[in-house]
Amino acid sequence: MKYVLIIGDGMADNPVPSLDGKTPLQAANIPAIDALAAKGEVGNVINCPGDLPAGSDTAILSIFGADPKVCYTGRSPLEAAATGIQLHPGDVSYRCNMVAYEDSDLPFEEKKILSHSGGSIEGDQSIQLVTDLFQDPRFQAAAQKAGMTVYPAASFRHIAVQAGANIAGISLIPPHDHLGEVIGPLLPSGCDNAAVLKDLMKLAHQVLDHHPINEKRRAEGKLPANGVWFWAEGSAVALDSFWDKYHKTGTVISAVPLCFGIARLSGLDIREVEGATGELDTNYEGKVAAALDELHKGKDFVAVHVEAPDECTHNGDLPGKLQAIEWLDSRVVGPLTQALDQEGADYRLLVLSDHKTLTSTRGHDGDPVPYLLYDSRTDSGLGLPYCEESGLKGPAYPEGAPVLMKKLFEI
Q1: Pick from 82, 157, 96, 75: nearest CA to 122
Q2: pLDDT tier at 401 (50, 70, 90 boundaries)?
Q3: Burial 109-131, CB ≥16 within 10 A → b, else e
Q4: I need a labelling partner for 404 at 20 to 30 A (CA). Which of 8, 64, 162, 360 fits?
Q5: Among 3.30.499.10, 3.30.230.10, 3.10.20.30, 3.40.720.10, what is the CATH number of 2-71+238-408?
């Protein structure tokens, strides 16, 4: 028996007026997923505990069987683990997003944040910007005084580590939940160290705003990555062994450091795929090939994470979200299950969204999301499509997806 988990990040949503009151899952053409749903079990689950942030960090911890109410210390320590960053006692890590602020003469606090991803900046440009920032004499002196070091990544998602930091009472707000808003009320607050981070963010904007890379991006009609945003603070984290809980070997395939960090901390293997970007243009076929290869090598379990629906929603791109959902169906679920069927393999498949990402707000929501559990050996005969409405008709798991992982493995 083989076991497959597919996460369409943020693909669940609420009804959208421009889609005639349908959700994107209802409006999208997803015949492969719907065919599996018709023979399987469709229900709903809350992956994000109500007293914790609604995001992929808490949700994917839950999906992999970890209770975020027990083990969650913040998002960035999970991402730090993905790249082998060692956090020492007293260290605090932060996500250091490249962001885009509006071009205006307004004071820093009165500007709006337009993009949580620096206009979807990637690769060498992002690495060069954050490297130049931390080497700028003014910013370098301020960062050293704050005890901060940056670890660049080939996306907008950098990690910053601050030694000897006190974050008691701090409030750091996820930028993707407040796009188009004035940043003043969103800037770090709550303790003395918050003022240090706020000053670093203000100085970063001064250094980056007219950097040659950003002037080039403006000339190309792109948003500039003219700032950094500290959030997702946390200290070192430990997770229980996946093998000890489920007695299954497994590999996680993603383009997102968060997923790799959770995998490493759980003792699962990771598989990077060339051309996997975390955006709509990701390498879907490469992820499927990697998943099948891991199963052929003898792994019991493989997880495929697709970030595109979430990123499209944050970017206000509804057509992109629909396309991402349809490509998840036609370029991931369809080919993967077809290959397993042709091999005559028995398998169980869990498909779900980690959380809702709302078209109406471009932010996350912790409401129940639909899940699909399919077993190649059985036909439930329920005949339901995969969507939020169908999910509410089936079994409900308000306590989180650790229950679903056990169901996937028939424990």
Answers
A1: 157
A2: low
A3: eebebbbbbbbbbbeebbbebbe
A4: 360
A5: 3.40.720.10
- The Cα–Cα gap between 58 and 53 comes to 7
Q: How many whole angstroms separate alpha carbon 15 and alpha carbon 100?
A: 29
Asked if pLDDT for residue 408 goes beyond 80, the answer is: yes
The pLDDT tens digits of the residues spanning 168-197 come to 999 999 999 899 999 999 999 999 999 999
Classify residue 109 by its DSSP letter: G
Contact 56, 50 (CB under 8 A): no
In a 13 Å sphere around the CA of 402, the CA atoms on its Cβ side amount to 14
**Burial classification of residue 149, based on how many CB atoms lie within 10 Å of its CB (0-12 exposed, 13-18 middle, 19 or more buried):** middle
- Indicate the domain borders of the chain: 2-71+238-408, 92-234
- First-to-last alpha carbon distance for the chain, in angstroms, is 13
Quick: pLDDT tens for 247-273: 999 999 999 989 999 999 999 999 999
Strand pairing report for 269-271 and 250-253: parallel
- Residue with the larger pLDDT of the pair 226 and 79: 226
Query: pLDDT tens digits for 342-399?
Result: 999 999 999 999 999 999 999 999 999 999 999 999 999 999 999 999 999 999 998 7
3 state SS of 240: coil
